[in-house]
Each structure stands twice: as structure tokens, then as C-alpha cells.
Amino acid sequence: PGNYYNQGEIRKKELEQSCLLLGIPASSVTVVDHRDLPDNPALQWDTQLLATFVLKHIEANNINLVVTFDAGGVSGHANHTSLYTALRYSNIIVLNLHPLSFLCLGCHVLTLESVNLFRKYISILDVPISCFLSRDALFILTEKEAEQARRAMQCHRSQLLWFRHLYMLFSRYMVINSLRLL
Question: Which family does the similarity line name (predicted)?
Fold first, then answer.
């Protein structure tokens, strides 16, 4: 539940507020509270355990598209990269061993492309580069959508340290997201 700084309940409420602002009702938000999946930017989560949680959630909710981080986790956050590893494990290795693989469930996975530091912080100036480079999906937000994304980020008050304010101003991820199929 985002309890790295003992703020799990606060962060859960912030997540629900952010999702609501984006049109996702609280009833559609699932927070996994498991002792082996602690919120810790330096800790890799257990691949098989996380894959099991994700696959069960996909099946129970008839999800047909998952958007997650790539191997770089955008910021290198170990929990983010763990999600990618678990989804890759589920999609490739489990395909032959487990009846709940993504393909069997009719679910596709898109991964958010991690870019180098220069591209990450040139905001809208990254549009020509992103358009030129190969990818499976490219989302460029309108001014209204970018403002909605900023408001959603601002719901996470407990995490809005000084550098996240700079992130909201300069990061391409606030306006441009390039994704690849897993």
C-alpha cells in the first residue's frame, strides 16, 4: 500500500483520489498489501508471487490490456522493474506452464518506454524524436489531458518532493508516452 515512509493509508487515499480524477472509481482500484511485496525503491519483488497476483487479477476482472513499466522502470525504481519482470515472466515462461497466461486470457501488455535523461526532461520537445523512433503505440496528450495528468499527480501530496514538481514541469512523460507490446 505504499508504506515505505509509513504512509500506506495516506498513499492509498491519494491513489484513489488520483484515479477518481482520471475517471477510475475507487471500486476499480486494487491495492495489494502483502508482506513479501513491500514498497521499497531498492527492493526487487518476488517474480512468481507478483505474476500470480497479476494473472489472478486479470482473470477476475476480464482485463484485456495492461500498461506497465519496461525493464528500466522509467526511473530505475526496483518495484517498477519488478512489475515488468513479473509480466514478462507471466507472458513468456508461464505461457507453456500455466493455464492463466496473458495470451490465454486475451490480454495484451504494453510497456512504457524508459528514455535517457536528456529526452526524459525535454518535455514537448521530445515529440519529433518520439515520432521518428520505432514503437508500437505513441500517446501525445492534448493541453487539457496534460493538465488533467498534472492534477492527478498533485493528488499524491505525500510524494510531491521538490524534484517531482520539476518532473511535472519538464518531463516528457507528462505529455508523451511511447509504448511497446510485450
Answer: Belongs to the PIGL family.
pLDDT band, very low/low/confident/very high, at 94 (cuts 50, 70, 90): very low
Cell reading at 80:
517498477
Report the alpha-carbon distance of residue 137 to residue 39 in Å, rounded.
29
Secondary structure class of 54 (helix, strand, coil): helix
Burial (CB < 10 A; 0-12, 13-18, 19+), residue 99, is: exposed
Hunting for cell 498489501 — which residue is that? Answer: 33
Q: What is the DSSP string of 19-83?
A: HHHTT--GGG------TTS---TT-PPPHHHHHHHHHHHHHHTT--EEEEE-TTHHHH-HHHHHH
Please provide residue 123's backbone torsions phi and psi, each rounded to the nearest 5 degrees.
50, -130
pLDDT digits (tens, 9 = 90+) for 23-51: 999 999 999 889 999 888 889 999 999 99
Q: Which of 95, 14, 24 is nearest to 61 (CA)?
A: 24
Sign of CA dihedral 47, 51, 54, 56: negative
Ranges of beta strands (E only) in the chain are: 65-69, 108-112, 137-140, 176-181
Q: What is the pTM of this model?
A: 0.87
Domain range summary for the chain, segments of one domain joined by +: 41-114
Beta bridge partners of 180: 111
CB atoms within 10 A of CB 41: 12
Amino acid at 149: A
